[in-house]
C-alpha cells in the first residue's frame, strides 16, 4: 500500500517550525542556568605563556573561568577523543586541554556567568600572553610539501604515456577555496545538570549517539549518566557530524560547577570549527579526435591540520562517468596550522567533480564537440575502478530530459555569441555523481489499541525531512493514516542510528521502519487468526496485510478485522517491536546517484555582474520517497552550487593565520535575489537491486555539478575561463 | 584599573503578542536576547547577532526590524509581534500555512524571521511581483536554499490577502 510513499506530503514537523514551537539546542530552559562565553586564541601556533582570569572573575555575575589550568579532568588518550567520524589518522583536538595553540580561533577559556551578556563582557577581561612560533596557513605556498594519502582508486593502464600520445589534450589546475557551512543556527549546547552527576545535553549535532559516546569517553562517564537530545537542528551540512567545541565546553562547565550551563558560539567563533578544505585539483584528459578518451589523470592537493589527516574522495569520479582505458588518481595533503577540515555537503565530489566537469567542457571546446555529445561519447555503463555494473544508472535519460527542458539544442556553441540586450548570455552544463550509501539503523514501533503508532529512532533530522519520510513509510507499512503516526528522533536513548550524513539516512531509516512494521504485522496476523471465529483463520500470515486500520487478506478479498478489535480481544494495550536493519553486503554492483545540470548565466559586460537566471537539474536517484521535500533538498543543493560557483570563499590573512571574513556578511552566501528559475526533474529510476524500496538518497547529489555548469556557462558567455573559484566580477574584468 | 561594573537595570514595558510585559534590562540587552532569554520566546532566532542574517526579524509597531540590532530599552512602550503571535486561536496565519504548503523551509531556523519579514513586507505593500519579493526579502538568509519556495509561499499569501 503506497498511500504516502512517493507523494508530496507536507513536512510533519512543519507546524512546529512555522509557529516557533520547534526548540533548538540553545533554547532549552533549566533552573539556575549559567551561560558560557568562549575566549579564543589570537595566534596561529605557539603556547599560552600566561592566562590571567583575575579581572574577569571580579566582574559581578561571573561564576568561574575555566582554562587548561583550571578545569575538571579530561581523557588523556587520543582514542577517547575519536568520535565515530573522526579521521583515522591523527590526534583529535581537545578544547582547554593544555597550553598548546594549534590554530587561530582555538578556544582557550570559557567564562561562565549568570547571564550571557555578563559572560560576553567578562570574556574581554581575560588577558593572555603567548609565545608565538612560526606557522603556515597558505596551501599554495606550501604546495611542494604535499604528501600522498591512500589512493581512492587504483590506476589503470598507463595514463602518463597515453596522455603524451593523445592527439587532443587538456590539462589545468582548478582551485577551490575554503568554504564554511554557516548553518543558520549558531552552534549551541545546553547541558542540564540533574543534581546527582548526570547530564541531559541538548546539542546541535547530526548524531546524538556519536556525541553521547564521545562525552562518556572524554569525561569518563557511564552510558546512563549522559543523555544527548537534539530534536531540531537548524542546518548543519556536515558541520555537526563530529562533536564540536561547545558541547565539550558546556559539559565541562556543568560538571565543574554542578549546574546547568549553556554555551552558544558566535557566528565568528563558528569559523574555527570544520570547513571544506581548499583544494587544488589538477585534471589532465587525453582524447582521440572522435571524442573518446584515452587517458584521465586527476590529482587533488588539499589542506588538512597538523594534528589530523582529513581527506575525501575528490579524484576518481571519472571512473564512474567516463570510459577511458588509462587512468591515474592521487590525493595529497598539506599540513597547515589550521583546524581540521570536515565534511561539507558532497565532500570530495562537490570539488572534484567541479574540476573534472570544467575540464570536460574545455576538452569539448578543444574537440569542437557539443559538451553533452562529448559526455555521451565517453559514457560508461560500468564503474571502471572495480569493473562493476550499476544497480541502476539513468544518466543518459538525465542528459536527455535536462537538455530538452533547458532548450539546449538552441545553443550557439561559439562563446560570446548569445546576448540579451546589454547582457552576455551563456549556457553551460555538467554532470553530477554521488554514492548511494546505506547504514544499519534500528527503529522501535509502539502500536496502541487506539490505532496510533509511535516510531522512534536516534537518527537526526537536520532539515532533510527524516521525520516526514519515516512517518510516510510507517503509515504505509502499518496501513494507518499519517496523522495517527508520531515520530520521535534524535535522543541518544532511542534505538541505534549513525550520524545523519552522506545521503544515507533516507534508505537506512526507511528500511528499519519496514522491518519493525513487518514484525508488528506478523504479531497482528497471529492474534487475528487466533480470535474466535476469525475470518482470517485459514490464511497464511504471509498473505495478511495492514490497510486502513484493518488486518486483511493481501488479495483484498474476504473479510477483515480492525486492528482495534484484535487488540481488544487479545487484551493488549500496545504492541512494541524494535528491529535493527542491516543491509546485505553486495559487492557485485556499483551504487550511485547521477544528475545532469544545465545553467544559464547573464553577465553585464561592463560591470562583470553575473546572474544565474536558469538552472535545470535532472536527477536520477532511485525512488523519491517524498517529491515535495525531495525537491527541496535538490533545490538547496543547487543554491549551494550557485554559492560555490560565484560567492563563497573563506579568506585567510596569512600574515596572522586568521580568517578575515568570519561573518555572514563578508562570507557571501546566496540571498533570495541571487536565486532565479530552478527547474528540477526527477528521472524515473526503478532499482530493485539496491534495496527493497529502491531508495538512493538526495542530500548531496543536488550540489554536485552545479558549480561546473555555471563556470562553463560563464565561459560560454564571455570566452573567459576562470579556474579559480568563486568566479567573482573582478576575475572577469581582469 | 579597568571598569568592571555592570550597568544598572532599567525598567521597560512592552506589549508582546498582545500581552503587557514588564521587564528590567541592562542597556546592552538587545530586544532579541530579552525575548529569548527573559521572556522565553525562543521562536525568534539568533543567527549572527550582527544584523546580517535576518533570523531575528520581528514586527515592532508593525514594521519588520532586526531585533538583534535593537536594544530592548529602545522599545519601551512598543508593540512587538513575534512568530509566536501570528497564529490566532490556533489558526495559522496565511503566511504560516503558505510556508508549509510550499515547503518554504527545511531546517526551520530562518523560518520565523522569514515569516515575520514577509508579514512586514505584505503590510508595506511594496512588492508587486516575484522579482520584487526576491529583492525585498534578501535581508533574510536561508542556508537550506529554500528561496524559490519562500517566494512562492509569499505570492500565495499575497494573492489571498
TrEMBL record, chain A:
List each copy of the Aldehyde oxidase/xanthine dehydrogenase a/b hammerhead domain by range: 19-134
- Name of the protein in question: Xanthine dehydrogenase family protein molybdopterin-binding subunit
Specify the domain of life of the species encoding this protein: Bacteria
- Name the segments for region: Disordered: 136-164
Give me the segments passing through the membrane. none
Q: Name one Pfam family in it.
A: Ald_Xan_dh_C
Basic and acidic residues: compositionally biased ranges: 140-157
Spell out the SUPFAM superfamilies in the cross-references.
Answer: CO dehydrogenase molybdoprotein N-domain-like (SSF54665), Molybdenum cofactor-binding domain (SSF56003)
Automatic annotation (TrEMBL), chain B:
Tell me where on the tree of life, at the top rank, the source sits. Answer: Bacteria
* Keywords associated with the record: Iron, Metal-binding, Oxidoreductase
- InterPro entries (UniProt xref): 2Fe-2S-bd, 2Fe-2S-bd_dom_sf, 2Fe-2S_ferredoxin-like_sf, 2Fe-2S_ferredoxin-type, 2Fe2S_fd_BS, Aldehyde_Oxdr_Iron-Sulfur, Beta-grasp_dom_sf
The record's listing under SUPFAM superfamilies reads:
2Fe-2S ferredoxin-like, CO dehydrogenase ISP C-domain like
The 2Fe-2S ferredoxin-type domain extends over 10-86
Query: Looking at the Swiss-Prot or TrEMBL record, what is one Pfam family this protein matches?
Result: Fer2
This protein is called (2Fe-2S)-binding protein
